[in-house]
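User: Here's a protein and a ligand (nicotinamide-adenine-dinucleotide). What would the complex look like?
Assistant: Let me lay out the input and then the predicted complex.
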Amino acid sequence: MLALLKTASGPGLQLQDVPDPTIGINDVLIRVHRTGICGTDLHIEAWDAWAQKTIQPPRIVGHEFVGEIVETGANVEDFTKGDLVSGEGHVVCGRCRHCLAGRRHLCARSIGLGVGRDGAFAEFVALPMTNVWHHWPGVDEDVAAIFDPFGNAVHTALAFPTLGEDVLISGAGPIGLMATAVARHTGARHVVVSEPNATRRDLAMRMGATLAIEPRERALPEVFAELDMVEGFDVAMEMSGNAQALRDAISAMAHGGGVAILGLPTEEIALDVNQVVMKMLTLRGIYGREMYETWYQMTVLLQSGLDISAVITHRFGFREHEAAFAAARSGDSGKVIMDWTA
Ligand code: NAD
Ligand code: ZN
């Protein structure tokens, strides 16, 4: 099969012919239809400090995908040839305290698809059956391809109740954009998006933001009067990884507010803990998706009319992977899809 892989230490990825993956009795083999490019893939392609300490080449990258089942192991009964599926990108140990208690997203020994095991930027990918999610017939395959980051957005957006609340989203990357649509769909009063990039602020308005502000030009409290807000935000979603964005969010919270933190900073962040204490804020870290409650929630949110398709701004055939990665890296993009069937 053809696959996009890191062949050796150093920047870049190679499209190469490699052996098809083999499956065990509890696994399924999936013919990949479409994939989404994640920031993780960009880190691996660029071979930054994180990639250097994490990735052992040769490694097929990629973890956001949709495809169809083409082969099933002897123990697999829930999946049959032709089923349209995506995969949860964290393969958990199954034996730790949390896994045994059904809290698989808390497994400390999980292995990442396209990071610690061969990934989905290929014509075929193999996964344990316990990592596979059925789509319903008629799902938009571009949207199905990005269930992984959509799940990050849903996991964060549902961390605190948003019905009728005033919500701040810091960072309108693909995940912040999808969280904007989810917060709107789940009944937030105002969704204020803070994002330095003008293209992404426009996308945020298309995804349902009340207001999209440039944080270097406008301080968050300046919007309160305009939006009839009394005290500050009830819920914040930190989706930039930027230190100042987190500090600004904490300063702009109302008493009793909840701050869901998904963004991954590259360095330690100094915070005014007095504000956290005096306002009685709840700060909550969000990682990945809940297995499989978030997957269920994504499915029913879409079936109840949520539309996230505007987050997809670019589509390429897999042979144009360099252009696809350039578009994802540019910042002037939402999600970038690669088609593996063309
Ligand atoms: P992205 O890098 O595309 O988006 C981040 C956005 O934040 C960019 O548009 C950037 O312009 C904006 N930004 C920078 N400084 C800002 C500031 N001061 N205020 C407001 N916005 C600012 O990333 P993404 O793919 O959308 O992911 C969002 C974040 O979540 C990243 O930090 C990523 O590493 C992290 N992430 C976490 C998980 C998890 O499981 N916790 C999973 C995926 C991604
Ligand atoms: Zn475990």
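Summary: The chain has eleven helices and 18 strands.
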